[in-house]
């Protein structure tokens, strides 16, 4: 199949912008007329320095990152940061305690990992299903916590914060792996933000960390050197060989985002895209079901069921088969929750979403 016959709704690694792939293809064998690929270039070369610095400058511009924040390009994915965050930050206060706001599978995993290193306080009783964000007035935040942690967009459950939690001065840590640069964000409200690249800002292999300077340098002595933000800041993310190709691709995505109008423009496009899918679901209430409370619905990942709130397996299987025939790929829900999920990251266009919505309506007509 050709690329133009497929629409990719994958949850990550996910669709990349056509322009980015075309530029990467042009540069593949000989970057900038150097006769070598970025993959073959020394990370210590001046050419690679330009690539990494250019990516950082673009990111700083796109997110208006204040000067007292450092930008790191690390490896180990979001999962690596589940460990790096507590290893670097729990020591900030004597109690070695952190508050975790658990709204889905990813924040639950992060909380479990942090328990290895200190005391984790989950700010409300465990939810029996991840379909909502409990009202902040019911949270019990510990003023002596070293940090407060949350996942801004739960990729599996389709639960997204539409607000930034208030922490009364305790550093706020956010996993933005699946919604960074999909909407504007006030960096100054955060102690640390991290995001794997493979959904909205590039390909797998690099994890972006944006961290406030005063939080760097307190890592536990057990913290592996490669995860210690201080080491990575001191070496401009080159404490070990960085994921050079992934950083280069990320820079191309940042350039593409800038050309489109940055995070504010993406927010507008993403709101319209997700509204198109949610309104289709809501307009056919006996056929399509979205389990997530309206106020917590993700603009990035839309989970849904067909036939009944718990899903009619025959109908859902048929939906996936028919979708595949039209070139729609990766609409299957995560194996832990089942059902369907459409991931609508930045590179998924309004036309892609229109095609999906048309198909959803036709499928309803034929199978109601
Ligand atoms: N956090 C979120 C929100 C995710 O969606 C994922 C993966 O999909 C992760 C963390 C884990 O990322 P990785 O697989 O890069 O370790």
UniProtKB/TrEMBL annotation:
Cofactor(s) in the UniProt record: pyridoxal 5'-phosphate
Residue stretches spanning the membrane: none
Keywords: Amino-acid biosynthesis, Aminotransferase, Pyridoxal phosphate, Serine biosynthesis, Transferase
Broadest EC class assigned to this enzyme: transferase
Annotated Pfam families: Aminotran_5
Name of the protein: Phosphoserine aminotransferase
Lineage: Eukaryota, Metazoa, Chordata, Cephalochordata, Leptocardii
One of the record's GO cellular component terms: cytoplasm
Organism superkingdom: Eukaryota
Pathway(s): Amino-acid biosynthesis; L-serine biosynthesis; L-serine from 3-phospho-D-glycerate: step 2/3
